[in-house]
Amino acid sequence: MSDSVLSVRNISKSFGGIHAVRDVSFDVEKGEVLGLIGPNGSGKSTLFNCVLGQLRPDRGEVQINGHRVGNMRASRLNKLGVGRTFQQLSVFPQMSVLDNIILAGQEHHGNMATRLFGPSDAGLTKEADQLIAFFRLEHLRDEMAGSLSYGQQKLVDAAMAFMAGPSLVLLDEPAGGVNLTMLGNLRERLETYNREHGTTFVVIEHNMEFVMSLCTRIIVLAEGAIIAEGTPDEIRSNQQVIDAYLGG
Amino acid sequence: MSEFFQLIVSGLSTGSIYALAAVGFTLLWQASQTINFAQGEFVMLPAFLVLALSVKLGFPLWLAMPLAIILAVLILGVLFKRLVVEPMIKHGTLPLVIATIALGVLLKEMVKEFYSPLGQPFPSLFPQDVVTIFGAVISIPDIANFVIAMGAIVALQLFLGGTRTGRSMQATAQNPDVAQILGVDIKRMVLYTFMINGALAAIASILITPIYLAKFSNGETLGLIAFIAAIVGGFNQIRGALVGGLLIGIIDNLSATYVSAEYRQALPLILLIVIILIRPQGLLGTSEGRTV
């Protein structure tokens, strides 16, 4: 358990009489790309929010890099090495792409004096430029983020998640609303980043093709509980999964 | 022609002071969705702080003015946020708006009751000399007011665009949830915004009060004009508030001379109506989507 980047133990969460998550446990090892899938209402988002400390589970606990999350503030999680992308667009629309990405890393550097009197880029321009190049956004570097297409903003969002050098990145529906060309680019970039840096990913996604091609292991939730776990090939052929998705 | 030029310069001078107050409106709106209807009284009060410090307590003017600015930052920035905005914003924008209206009345009546209901002479920072430029007679205070007010706004823009704290403040204004997740201390950033508004109001107060005398009711007109300037320019853009303030300053001056002094106060309102009808987001503002 202590070697896991993310450890989820016996998490349960109810809303009134509805059991959104029921006794869910799993570990995610360093460098793993875990997909979390399930039909609508299966409890994915509730579980995700429990992992991120945004919802307090009724039972169970979550540890990230050996630290108990509890109701830890999001900013503290970020400083613990947890990056995340959002289902909704989360860029700062009236800032340039470069400024968006610098902002995602600047709170990890310096003190109050350097915030006020230090270099405005916190010495992060080079690092931000590397990420911009990695996500092939060089031509958009100085554009206002709000003027980009939806898919381009998703890429900026992804780049921001990596700026603080996280050990764990949680991707909340990264493929949602992104066109096929951009999607292929995003998947390839995430795979490369994972291979080169050994960063651990947990992905919630509805796009099956995207999940199956990106993830090394998949957990399937239905009615708040884990019904299957395995490699993409094992999940594809699992009858319980097929039934859950087809309502059989 | 020289008279026209003279009026334009004079209009830019008062307009730049209106812009200081209007920028404060936009800052508070962007950072915390606060519409501060006590903004006029925020511009009225620091002049009385200067008078209280210099006349009543005997501080020299050079010391009383910076002290008044510091007091304004604390009272109109920190205390306003802690005692009015934080308890009221939980109940929604409308209760907060009503609370700021009440605060404006309270400040006005307090000054009237505890200082004086009569207009008080207020010392000018600058000699009352004039210079002649292209045949137009321009007063030194007009030039100095414009330079100081614009200097304050430019410094603010440089701070917001050129420092890490400024970037964090912008991020807080544009997307507070995500800014918080990225580690930005959004409560502190919002507090900084309120403190900056207090400082801007104090600078505006020290610049404009020598023109009108220090009077408890000064905030009524100033608040209205600054509010109109912010809407005309674009409530979500600092440069919009700047343009709105300058525009109203010029229109005010030109209309008093070429139209009628009686209707000068009506023209900003007419401009407001026209802008709302033609371009509701303001001259430089952008439309804001709201989920309902």
Automatic annotation (TrEMBL), chain A:
GO terms for molecular function: ATP binding. Residues 6-248 form the ABC transporter domain. InterPro entries: AAA+_ATPase (IPR003593), ABC_AA/LPS_Transport (IPR051120), ABC_transporter-like_ATP-bd (IPR003439), BCA_ABC_TP_C (IPR032823), P-loop_NTPase (IPR027417). SUPFAM superfamilies: P-loop containing nucleoside triphosphate hydrolases. The keyword ATP-binding applies. Keywords: ATP-binding, Nucleotide-binding, Transport. Pfam families: ABC_tran, BCA_ABC_TP_C. PANTHER family: CONSERVED COMPONENT OF ABC TRANSPORTER FOR NATURAL AMINO ACIDS (PTHR45772:SF9), CONSERVED COMPONENT OF ABC TRANSPORTER FOR NATURAL AMINO ACIDS-RELATED (PTHR45772). This is ABC transporter ATP-binding protein. It comes from Sinisalibacter lacisalsi.
Automatic annotation (TrEMBL), chain B:
It comes from Sinisalibacter lacisalsi. Its main location: membrane. The keyword Cytoplasm does not apply. Pfam families: BPD_transp_2. The chain crosses the membrane at residues 6-28, 61-80, 92-111, 131-160, 190-213, 225-251, 263-282. Keywords: Amino-acid transport, Cell membrane, Membrane, Transmembrane, Transmembrane helix, Transport. It is a multi-pass membrane protein. InterPro entries: ABC_transp_permease, BCAA_transport_permease. This is Branched-chain amino acid ABC transporter permease. Belongs to the binding-protein-dependent transport system permease family. LivHM subfamily. It is found in: Cell membrane. The keyword Acetylation does not apply.
